[in-house]
Amino acid sequence: MPGPGSPSPEPASPLTGPESPAPQQRGRDRYFDLLRAIALFRVVLYHLMGWAWLPVVFPSMGVMFALAGNLMSRSLDRRPAPEVVRGRLRRLLPPLWLLGVIAVTGMVLAGWGPGDERHPIWWWLHLGYWVLPISDPPYAAVSHGIEGLVADDWPTALGVPLWYIRAYLWFVLLSPLLRRALRAAPWPTILAPLALSAALEFTSATTTSWRLDSTLTDFATFGSCWLLGMAHHEGVLQKLPRYTVPSLAPAVAAVALWYALRHDLHQNHDLDDMPFAQSLWSFAAVLLLLHLSPRWRTWPPALRRWDGPITLLNSRAVTIYLWHNLCIVVAEPLWDHAWNIQALEQHAPGLLNSPWPVLPLTWLLTALCVLAFGWTEDLAAGRRPTLWPNGRTKGLRGRGR
């Protein structure tokens, strides 16, 4: 799991998004679209601000895994498991490959190479994780940046969130087996990752490989969320008495919050550093959100104005997730140049020290990444590339017919 100051996110399309970006597609659940958009926005905000309370207010990672599990279960209902897994990999990997080509090339040109690991052959072998991320892709700890534009720690900012890609890949590969287990024994299966998380927390259980430890920890932390998403589609949650979830979820959340506070929850030590507390809190939040699910096929009137941004976030969630951290690393030194404006330095030093102006700048840079790299998501999904898929273009065509 990421360490302090590098919280987990986060993405959609293959990761958490819908099968197609078309806003009027039959079967689309706009409530789920809204949750994905909120989760992604929260990820970007958290990576910039680092506030420990943000994952408590909205546990984006658990929500994103749950929605992805729901989508995976729906796909498994329609197509054979090997075909579904291949389709998910086809949609996931091309955006990662594009990032890898650019990132690895930049790091190598800046001096990163085989000498950075214990034996040169390991460096070459580990590069394979940029092709198939069954473990975390490697990256340089620091590299030469660009003075006044990109800090030297840009590879870490770019590489740390990639744990989510690895975790998502394993959930996809295991989903056919997980669905079998879920149908045979629903609640023992759903609760098994929580039990594993408790075992990892309260025993000395470990392996000889940090890579395997990370994979097991992430499965234990978010496996129940993924399974809750599958269970929602399978109708397991709907069979519970209506009072069960509102009674149980707050109790589980209270235990999680108590545990987090006992283990010194603060700005540089949050839920991402407490896998057991994270697993309980995410489980409780996801359980409530799925219980409340209103199944919107069209937007409620109050949300219709947000259709374009929400559709765009869902359609380009992988691109946003993969590139937003690097955009933050670029936006911060760009904003520092504002100190050269004498009027601001004299009259608004608080504004110059504030991270809030960096947020719109980050989203502006992220939008440029969407324009530059987002087309890979369309190609991966077998769609015609679109620069800005907010749903409006297709809607206009539909009205013209």
Structure description:
This protein has 401 residues and is mainly α. Helices cover 64% and strands 0% of the residues. The chain contains 18 helices and no strands. It is globular and about 65 Å long.
Task: Describe this structure in a few short sentences.
The protein contains 18 helices and no strands.
Radius of gyration: 21 Å
Strand content: under 5%
How would you state the average pLDDT, rounded? Answer: 90
Structural class by sheet pairing and helices: mainly alpha
Shape: globular
Helices and strands, in order, run as HHHHHHHHHHHHHHHHHH
Record field, number of beta strands: 0
- Proportion in helices: 55-70%
Note the gap between the termini.
50 Å
Q: Could you name the ranges where pLDDT drops below 50 across 5 or more consecutive residues? A: 1-14, 18-25, 395-401
Largest β sheet strand count, sense and barrel closure: none
Number of helices: 18
Topology of helices and strands:
Layout: H1 30-49, H2 54-57, H3 60-78, H4 81-109, H5 120-126, H6 154-159, H7 163-184, H8 186-202, H9 210-234, H10 244-262, H11 275-291, H12 307-315, H13 317-336, H14 342-347, H15 349-353, H16 358-373, H17 375-380, H18 392-400
Helix pairs in contact: 1-3, 1-12, 1-13, 3-7, 3-9, 3-11, 4-7, 4-13, 7-8, 7-9, 8-9, 8-11, 9-11, 10-11, 13-16
Write a concise keyword list for the protein shown above:
401 residues; mainly alpha
